[in-house]
Write a structure and sequence with these properties.
Blueprint (H helix, E strand, L loop, with lengths): L1 H37 L5 H8 L7 H19 L5 H21 L1 H4 L11 H7 L1 H12 L11
């Protein structure tokens, strides 16, 4: 009886887990991304401080570019055919996401506690390791249509 229930739950999770992960990634990237060009992102000060040195555009313009980039990543995660593009764009975005840990340690770590005492901003960045892992799981399914629900 327990074995039967366990197998049924495992089948359900195998069938729907990757789709749920893709949709979750899509929602998170669209939601957090759109906040930036709308000017209501709590991450705005961190992003602006991170891109302040970048050439070509003003920091606010970079904020909008990053926000729309994230929206694009989110939309692309929603469709199986565009997963490779989503993951590629996300990989590039993640490089920038981790930059504050290096260039703004006074913002991302508590005073005297580098690297073991992140601030709230540091925790916000470090949790992206989970997002990278989720993308690896999703990416591992792009060639196996039998394991991915659409």
């Amino acid at each position: 009886m327990i074995e039967t229930i366990d197998r049924a739950i495992a089948r359900f999770m195998q069938r729907w887990g990757t789709l749920a992960l893709r949709v979750s990634m899509g929602i998170i990237f669209i939601w957090f991304g759109i906040l930036k060009p709308l000017g209501v992102s709590p991450a705005e000060p961190l992003v602006l401080a991170t891109v302040d040195w970048m050439p070509l555009f003003e920091p606010k313009t970079w904020l909008h570019i990053i926000g729309w980039w994230e929206v694009a990543i989110g939309v692309l995660f929603l469709f199986r055919r565009t997963l490779r593009i989503a993951i590629g764009l996300m990989a590039m975005q993640m490089v920038g996401t981790f930059l504050p840990l290096i260039i703004l340690p006074d913002v991302t770590f508590q005073s005297g506690l580098i690297p073991f005492g992140p601030t709230m901003e540091g925790q916000y960045i470090i949790k992206n390791l989970l997002i990278i892992s989720a993308a690896l799981v999703i990416g591992g399914t792009v060639r196996d249509s039998a394991s991915v629900a659409d």
